[in-house]
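Pipeline run #58 for the internal structure catalog. This entry was flagged by the ingest filter as a single-chain record with no existing model, so it goes straight to prediction. Upstream metadata was stripped on purpose; only the residue string is passed forward. Reviewer on rotation: M.T. Logging verbosity set to normal.
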Amino acid sequence: MKAKVDPTRVENPQPGKITELYKPIAPAEGGMNNYSDVDPRQNTAEAKAKADRLINKTEDLKKGDTNPFKQLGKQLDDKGIRDRAGETADQLNRSAKETAEDVAKGTKRGYQNLKENTKSFADDVKSAADDIGDEAKAKANDLKNNIRKAS
């Protein structure tokens, strides 16, 4: 059996030095090795949007737009000042409520600790008084026994 050969395909068209290793698929763009420096699989839409926003902001500053309300409006994006103020008020209300609850819990815990410490102190005083009484009785008995021995 004889192998079929495509007559239009030439394996090595020129004898001698080969200057190109392969025929590039992507067009040269001027980056590293004449190709794009960005991986085509990478999603750069967010970075591009951020760059566009910064460019627009810079152009506004170049125009001399110093109206703080206009700049604030741009910074707030889609939300209005009323919405932002409402959110801030809700956050402050929530924070104040949490702080009040924490203070109430702390006060209750402090009261319980004080109550336990007072009871413990009273028990310690009573125990110390009992010990002093027992020692006084022991000393009195020792004194009584010494007087009997001496007489």
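catalog note: The helical segments are 45-63, 68-75, 81-150.
catalog note: The CA atoms of residues 60 and 66 lie 9 Å apart.
status: ready for reviewer M.T.
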